[in-house]
Design a protein that fits this description.
mainly beta; 10-stranded antiparallel sheet; 10 strands
Length: 179
């Protein structure tokens, strides 16, 4: 039964009817142009946003699909990962994943943006609602290190069945090297 999960593991679809499904404020803090934000907003309305999560005591594997995203990543729990971004130089993304169990994951990322550097904290928590239905609550906070501007967005996801589109690609090297 999809509605009664005991962990974050599985596929989750963004519930556009509750919370703040829009990423507009987040993108504004990143310094994304108004035109790009408008295109992103249209895409979010037209195409479903889904996350496939595989969380264990030692790693997080996540695949995100949306109109603007098709990303699969894997991180060890409790270790800092540094990834050099396109463009080279000092453009690095630093990520650390921590978990309090299979019902919770906290992804902390520092990365360059269009207007400086951002710190992002993405907390995903399994929530049991009245009637026993389980949902995923995402509390996504971004802070522009240079301007001090901060935005927290709360989004909700509902369980969904696995489809080929959101299944993990086993032929992708999505692992990150700890430093």
């Amino acid at each position: 039964m999809l509605d009664a999960r005991t962990s974050l593991n599985g596929v989750w679809r963004l519930d556009k009817s509750r919370g703040e499904p829009s990423m507009k404020g987040y993108l504004e803090v990143m310094g994304v142009t108004a035109m790009a934000i408008e295109a992103h907003e249209k895409g979010e309305k037209d195409v479903e946003t889904r996350n496939n999560i595989e969380l264990s005591g030692s790693k997080l594997r996540i695949k995100k699909t949306s109109r603007v995203n098709n990303l699969q990543e894997e991180f060890p729990i409790g270790q800092e990962i540094i990834k050099t971004l396109m463009g080279g130089g000092d453009r690095q993304k630093v990520t650390r994943v921590d978990s309090e169990g299979l019902h919770h994951v906290k992804i902390t990322t520092q990365m360059p943006t269009m207007n400086g550097k951002a710190e992002v904290v993405d907390i995903k928590t399994l929530v049991t609602e009245d009637g026993g239905k389980t949902v995923l609550r995402q509390d996504l906070t971004i802070r522009n290190v240079d301007t001090g501007q901060t935005k927290t967005t709360q989004r909700w996801f509902v369980p969904e069945a696995l489809t080929e589109e959101i299944a993990f690609d086993e032929n992708v090297d999505d692992s990150a090297d700890a430093t």
